[in-house]
Structure formats: C-alpha cells, structure tokens
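User: Hey, quick favor. My workstation is busy. Could you predict this chain's structure for me?
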Amino acid sequence: MHKEGIRRIVVRGPNWLGDAVMCEPALGQLPILFPQAEITLLVKPAIADLLAQHPAVNRTLVYDDRGRHAGLTGKWTLSGVLRRHRFDLAILFQNAFEAALISFLAGIPRRFGYATDGRSLLLTDPVVVPPRSAQRHQVEYYWDLLKPLGGQGPAPAPRLFVTPEESALIARRLADAGIGAADLVIGVNPGSTYGHAKRWLPDRYAEVVNRVVKDTQSRSGARVGVAILGAKGEEPLGKAIADQIKTRSVVCSGQTTVRELMALVKRCQLFLTNDTGPMHVAAAFNVPLVAIFGPTDWQTTSPFGVDAQLVRQPVSCAPCLLRECPIDHRCMTGVTVEQVHGAAVRHLPLVAPPPVSEPDASIPVLSPASLAGVTVFLDRDGTLNIDSGYLKSPDDLTVLPGVGAALAKLKQAGARLIVVTNQSGVGRGYFTSKDLEAIHSKLRLVLAEDGVTLDGLYFCPHHPDDRCNCRKPARGMVDRALAELHVDLSRAYVVGDSARDVELARQVGAKGLLVMTGPSGAEALADLTARDLSPDHVADDLSQAVEWIIAHATRKAAADVPR
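Assistant: No problem, here it is.
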C-alpha cells in the first residue's frame, strides 16, 4: 500500500464499550502510520461519545443502526454518506460482515480488516485471523491488525480523555450526594448489559465495600463515599447494594451519559467491577481496580497494561462465554467475599483525589455553537510550545503554560483549530519526517489532556531556497485547509509569534494576532510596524489571544445578525 497517497481514512470501530476501549491503542497509532491522512471514525452513538475527545480522530460519523441506518435501506443510506466523503481507505476493527459490506457499497477503494465472518471477498486487503491457540489479548488482537500497515512494537495500555468541565460536573453531582471533593470514592459496578452470568452477587459487593471502608477509615481516618454505576434497568440492583452500605452512597445506575460515566469512573480511588465496559474505562484511567471474572475469558479481556487485581474461581465449565448460566452459576457463587476483600486490600491505602478546579465564574460560559464556523490557524513553535530552535524529538517538546486551557475554550465554543507550521528542518536534514510525525503525535496527546483535539495539522517540510508555495507567509497550507476542511476565511484568525504569521493572515484575508511568547516577538512587532503591517492584536500569550478572538468573533456574529 502506498501510504503517502492515503489522505482520507474511515475507521469502523467496535460496537461494545469495552471493545472500543481495548481498540484505543490501535486507533491512537493511526496518525503515526498515516501522518498526512484525515481520520474519520464510524461508530455507534455510545462509542462516539466514548471517543469524542480522542486526539487521533478528526471527525466522527455516527452509525445509527436503530434509527436512520436500520435495515437494508439504512445501510444503503449510510453507504451513500461514506461515498460522498470519498475515502481512500477503510480500516475495519469491527469484525462483522456488514462492516465490510457497507464499505464495499460505499466504493471505498481499499478495504482493510480481518478475514472473518465470511467477508474475505469484500476486502481488498484481508488479514489472516490469529489462531485461537495464540491466546492474544483483545488489545493485541486490534493492535496486530495494523502490523501489515507498518505497526510496530508492543501494544501500549488504552487511554481515555475527559474535559475539565466534565470532571467539575461530576464533582458537583457527588457533592449534592454529600461526597466532597477531598473524600475518597469507591466505585462499584455490579451489573452487566451482556447478561446476568457475568454478575457477582450484590450482597457480597456490599459486604466487601463495608469492609474496605472500615479498613480505610481505621488506617487514615479519611472520609469515604461510594458511587454505584450501571446501565438503564440496573437501578434496582444498585439500590439493593446501596441499602446495605454503611457510608454515604449515590446510585448513578441509569443516570449518566457515557461521558459522565467516564468522568465518574476517573474520580474513583478504587473500582470494584465485573468484566464489563466500565472495567476497561477504569483501566484506561489507571484507577486501582478489582475485577471479578466468571464466564468470560480473563486471558483475552482482562484489564490491560495496569496493576489490576483479578479474582476468579477456576471451574471446569469456564470460560463458557454464555449470557445466562444453564446450571448453578458456580463460577460466580464460588467467588467469596474474603477473596475480593483480600484483592481490594492490596490497593490500600487509597490515594487522596487531586483537587478539581471549578470553571472561572468571571469568564462567560460559551455554548458549543458560539463560535461555530470560526477557524483559528495556529503557529507551532513559540506559540504552542517553547521554541528551542529546531525541535528534533518528542522528548524535547514542552507545551507553553496555559495553552491547553486556552485552546479548550475555543473548542468548547465550537471553533476549529488548525496548526500550520514551517518545518524546514526536514529539508535541511536536521530531522526526518518520521521524527516530525512523532513530535506531532506527542503534541496531540498533550493537548488531549485538556480535552483539545486539532481539526487539522499542516506543515511545510521544504528548505527556504526551494521557493515552495506552502512555506509561510505563502498561503499553500491555508489553501489546502480551505479545500479539505471547507474553511470560511472571512471568519478565520491566524495566531503566531513571528512576522510571517501576521503576513499570512494578510495574504488570506484573516485577522492576524502576534503573541509575544517566541524568542523574537519584540523584533517581529517592530518589523511589522515599520512595514505598516501591524497585527490586529498583540497578546502576551495564547490565553490573551484567545480572549480577544472570543470577544471579536462574538461581536462580529452579533453585528451580522439581521435587524
């Protein structure tokens, strides 16, 4: 496969929450394997929420198989949507026949996935399924799919991302239940949407929680609260456990969105769970957890890459993978309170939670549509990260203070963020394109910690003597964004630390902002002033620039409203 010709990729993700978490490392590798490609994720609604803040994803299409995409007509409709996006490559992490069929009907020229479920003829690039005897973990199963595309090394642990606003919302909900910001929280996940066979006994969960609370209070005197999670329909199960718990508790079963569930799980200092999707969510946030396994295969679906305590009762009929037990449920009834409590004690003492910062009340809260249609082009070195000369390694990348929070405001308000950066170090031979890919992957990951995803990242690799049309202040990178992302330049801003960033803004008809965080900000301002090219605004740093953009774009939108 000539990967340099792949510009648009659609990724069909798994359908189940836990599978989607285990697929995350493979998803995160795609920008490294295809640095020039825009990645679109095609998933069901719950998975779209789960991965909404993922740095590898540029766009998400929702597969509404219970609504507009139901039945044969719906599949044809979805195929038409994909056809209009003109994808070059479909990567199918979802194993079903229909995933291959839809991508085939959409006319996607390259269709890549495991040769399973009778779909080999629909794939242009079928990959042999690893034998059952290999006992590959599900994380490795997804990771190995990408090896023919250049994937290398061992699979890392899954990661998930929530925003500061989502964490603050959960903190307020817990506070309403009497669980304070400094309290330890034990999460309990006693249900399973897959079937009752995966459920441990609720009274035993309650007994373990009571013992752990007593242990914790006797060791540290810390206040402990309990949050019980579950899907819709599991509210009675949660209440039955809460009624037996001898400390403050809140039943959140059926009361959270996927994003809220993620933030709630991340808030926990200990998580007690069956083998379900939230178990993998807890592992992705590195929450200390105890996982109870019965009919499922712990070797392939256990928490991956974290220090989790697994409890199981070896019986001859497990793993059977059945939803309901046809006999006496011995794999679960054989797991004792003493076993689970002993596993939980290994995580003691519990570590106090970090403080959650409330959003600044002095800053107006923007709705997600406030800056819809606004695009902010961002320089990289000296604007987003420290400019130390030629940045050659991701280990040397240091994002400037406040950058993540500032960009999060723009994203929250609906603006698109596109990085445009001159990287002549490639043309000069100081570092390779692979080095640059790794640096940009690190940048995306650092920004994702503040809930920020970039909508585009374009770079010019040419030597200045090449006289290309993409090196700033030439407009080539902006023109590419204009063609690929349909940018409205009348509502665009260019932010950078050098004169060429402001010159670029003039070239394309956007507003130009100069930030003084680069090594030659004062020199750039003097040069621009001398040439009568003064910026539209001069800011001390990106945070100030963002405040000006929000105020300016809001005023402009108000002025454009017909009276």
